[in-house]
Amino acid sequence: MPNLVQPKVLKGFRDFLPETEISRKEIQTTLENTFKSFGMVPIDTPILEYTEVLLGKGSGETDKQIYRFQDHGKRDVAMRFDLTVPFARFMAANLNNLYLPFKRYHISKVWRGENTQRGRYREFTQCDFDIVGVDSPEADFEILSIMYESLTALGIPDIHIHISHRGIFNAFLEYLGVKENSAEILRIVDKLAKIGEEKVLEQLEELTNKEKASKILEYISADGSFDEILSKLEELSGGPTEGSKRLGTIRKMMLNCGIEDLFILNPSITRGLDYYTGIVYETFLDELPAIGSVCSGGRYNNLASIYSKTEMPGVGSSIGLDRLMAALEELGVSSSKKSLTKVLIMNMDDSLKGHYFNIAAKLRKAGINTEVFLEQKKMKNQFTFAERKNIPFAIIIGEDEYKENKVSVKNLETRENFNMTNIEDAIKIIGGNKE
RNA sequence: GUGGAUAUAGUUCAAUCGGUAGAGCACCAGAUUGUGGUUCUGGGUGUUGCGGGUUCAAGUCCCGUUAUCCACCCCA
């Protein structure tokens, strides 16, 4: 008995079986189609980068989560922990070959050495879409539209996109005289929904003082309609700011498109990453608030500045595919029973083997995914195989069919038989059942 | 990374005081049908997550380890 190696996978890393992977791919295709419909183009970047490239402007927090090591040439390298930072590097490196504004999407895996939880893994897939090269409310709004269209295309019911603005908040903190603590304040504020007002107030008091803490709480828990909250924020931050004006403009575009109900102005949304400079957003499912944001992002106007002297304002958002899939599963929206093969040609007769492949080729030419059962076994076996793989149709060709150049089709779900039909009719029967 | 809970067959679960692992479903083999859902016969399919320890004896008690779930942290 040889010593077998345990076929184990790392904590937070996963295998994907066909039934999962098929729907993952479908979701990705749906998203890609939505992105393309807005004129976005795909790109790709290496998963490994120089550590300094990834951490150039990262926060202290991301340092801890990053997978980092020395390569064989003693280079200090790291695996990307998101797609936005490599994208900034990409822009700086390829600016000469690009046209601005540049709109790209990128669906790929990223890695963070965090502790795992449901819907949270160490290897996960992000679907990013960004617009670089314009700092306009139109661009901000377009990203919001894509977020909405993408999630709608996936058939996700009842979403709300919570939006907020870093610029206004910074103006407010400056007005309050606590700007130097902004990073910590942002982090505390972000927890409002989770730990409640009391705890937030407590932590803010520790950091600043009683008066200022209650002012901050007043800011982040501002209530009412979009416009009411907006004017409240302006009031608290000492008058209208560039950011608040822009939010007003974006609000008008929402009203024009009749999608204003989807958006909630929520000043407690701040986002952990510190590269954001303008609008920020997170998306929650009404029925599953606990699962967290499934799509979030914002405007980052200085991100590329560490790589290039050219200014490249950007705005974008990212869908967490794994978290989204966990949500879809829980909501019962995901369709797990999918097959890619439409018909199985049963292996009945030794002398007809070549004929089976010939028929299969014809069916494929007609656009029908076809496979031939690859050994001669009992029909029961072959049917069981088809059932396991969720193949909806079987084609049976025995001596009789072969002689008259016909086939018999069986619908495996209804067990309905279509005996001795010609191939053209068989194609109609099978193809007509397309989803 | 820290703290807590959990880990038994493909799956859902059971196993008393520590006494040598069992049930439903699923599955496999065979019989019978040119068409699998019925029927008949036969089969338990297991490194009790992994590694140690205590004991005459460990799924059960102890220690370690790995993974999962939950909280913190952070985020998608």
**Main sheet makeup:** 8 strands, mixed
Strand order of the largest sheet: 1-5-6-11-10-9-7-8
**Shape type:** elongated
The total number of structural domains is 2
Structural class: alpha+beta
Mean pLDDT: 85
pLDDT under 50 segments (min length 5)?
none
Stated plainly, the CATH topology of the largest domain is called: BirA Bifunctional Protein, domain 2
Extended strand count: 16
Contiguous helical run count: 16
**Fraction of residues in β-strands:** 15-25%
CATH hierarchy: architecture of the largest domain: 2-Layer Sandwich
CATH class term of the largest domain: Alpha Beta
Share of helical residues: 40-55%
Distance between the termini: 49 Å
Describe this structure in words.
The chain has helices spanning 18-37, 51-55, 60-65, 84-94, 137-153, 166-176, 182-189, 192-207, 210-220, 226-236, 242-257, 321-331, 353-365, 379-388, 399-403, 423-431; strands at 41-42, 48-50, 68-70, 76-79, 102-111, 123-132, 159-165, 263-265, 279-285, 295-300, 314-320, 343-345, 370-372, 393-396, 407-411, 416-421. With 435 residues, the chain is of the alpha+beta class. The protein has two domains: 18-331, BirA Bifunctional Protein, domain 2 (2-Layer Sandwich); 343-431, Anticodon-binding domain (Rossmann fold, 3-Layer(aba) Sandwich), CATH 3.40.50. The strands form three sheets. It has an eight-stranded mixed β-sheet. Strands 13-12-14-15-16 form a five-stranded mixed β-sheet. The protein has a three-stranded antiparallel β-sheet with strand order 2-4-3. The chain is elongated. It starts with 17 loop residues before the first helix and ends with a helix. The chain binds one RNA strand of 76 nucleotides through α3, β6, β11, α12 and α14.
